[in-house]
Design a protein that fits this description.
There is one protein chain. With about 300 residues, the chain is of the alpha/beta class. It has eight helices and twelve strands. It has two domains: about 5-115 and about 270-300, no CATH class; about 115-265, NAD(P)-binding Rossmann-like Domain (Rossmann fold). About 35% of the residues lie in helices and about 20% in strands. It has a seven-stranded mixed β-sheet, with helices on both faces. It has a five-stranded parallel β-sheet with strand order 9-8-7-10-11, sandwiched between helices. Helix 2 packs antiparallel against helix 7 and helix 3 (about 125-135) crosses helix 7 (about 240-265).
Length: about 300
């Protein structure tokens, strides 16, 4: 079996970068196949495969199943075979392969959804409520504000007493919320614009936000990035108290995150029978018997290249 420590190191890297992935494990095979039960790989929605679960005939099916699992958060058991099963099982999803080897594989796809990161700029009462709610909703929370302290944000993973983007150590691409509510709004918004993210929102009225956006553009900030700041932040639920506003903003963050995953999961979908190569960053398992088996299969056209299941 492929070195589990190598996969564990890669999994740690993906989680640090907040990249969702699936653990694909071969659970059953019918020879000839290029993979054996127990072989594993980490698969991302982008189609990157780290590890080994078979050649070009099986990879598109695994990528497609991974994207579905990452969208709905549910595991899948798939079977890749050149012949459709005459007796389909309700809990097994069949993929027909175009390979001529005649082998089949059953692979268990387990989604691993990383904790999303939230960068909260500000120390207002809404910020305090949002930090707590976001923690229990599964976010890693970083609070940045000159007036912030650990005692006021007991559930934050990190508290930074500055708006300087250089001191913000949130990993990956955190969702960013400016919750200053009148205290150094411009400084916080400028810090938010320096963060690489797909979501920036500002807890403020549209009128106030529009005025501040004009000021930011006048200072030379990218107009497209400035216009992309969502304000008012959150979903419209008629919120009035700090706690209710925090619920509204958190709902908006969750909706934005799911929309982002759906967008990434459905982009550049590969057809099941496609032989387009996926990005594979690991060679097949290094076993002497596996190498000999692959060599013999190669002679018959059934090895781990794009001619094997």
């Amino acid at each position: 079996m492929f070195n589990d420590r190598t996969l564990a190191a890669k999994a740690k890297q993906l989680e640090a970068e907040h990249v969702p992935y699936a653990l694909a494990t071969v659970v059953r095979c019918k020879s000839p196949t290029a993979a054996q039960p127990g072989y594993k790989a980490l698969v991302t929605a982008a189609g990157d495969i780290h590890g080994w679960i078979g050649g070009g005939c099986v990879q598109p099916a695994v990528i497609k199943a991974t994207r579905q699992s990452l969208r709905d958060g549910l595991p899948q058991l798939i079977r890749v075979s050149p012949v459709g099963d005459a007796h389909p099982e309700y809990d097994v999803i069949d993929f027909k392969s175009s390979c001529y080897s005649g082998g089949s594989l059953e692979i268990f796809i387990e989604p691993i959804l990383s904790r999303p990161a939230l960068l909260l700029l500000g120390s207002s009462e809404v910020a305090k409520s949002l930090a707590t709610l976001a923690h229990f909703a599964g976010f890693t929370v970083t609070v940045a504000s000159p007036a912030a302290d650990a005692a006021s944000f007991p559930w934050a993973d990190e508290v930074i007493t500055d708006f300087d983007a250089g001191s913000i150590t949130a990993s990956g691409s955190p969702l960013v919320v400016v919750a200053t509510q009148g205290k150094r709004d411009q400084a916080a918004l400028q810090a938010a614009l320096k963060v690489d993210t797909f979501h920036r929102s500002f807890i403020a009225s549209k009128r106030k936000a529009d005025k501040l956006k004009q000021i930011l553009k006048g200072k030379g900030h990218d107009p497209q990035a400035v216009d992309g700041i969502i304000a008012p932040a959150g979903l419209e639920i008629g919120a009035s108290s700090p706690e209710e506003i925090a619920v509204s903003v958190l709902a908006g963050l969750i909706a934005a995150r799911h929309a982002r995953h759906a967008q990434l999961g459905t982009s550049e979908e590969l057809p099941v029978n496609s032989t387009a190569p996926a990005a594979i960053t690991a060679a097949p398992p290094e076993r002497a018997e596996t190498a000999e088996s692959s060599l013999s299969l190669a002679k018959s056209g059934c090895c781990g290249n794009n001619s094997a299941t």
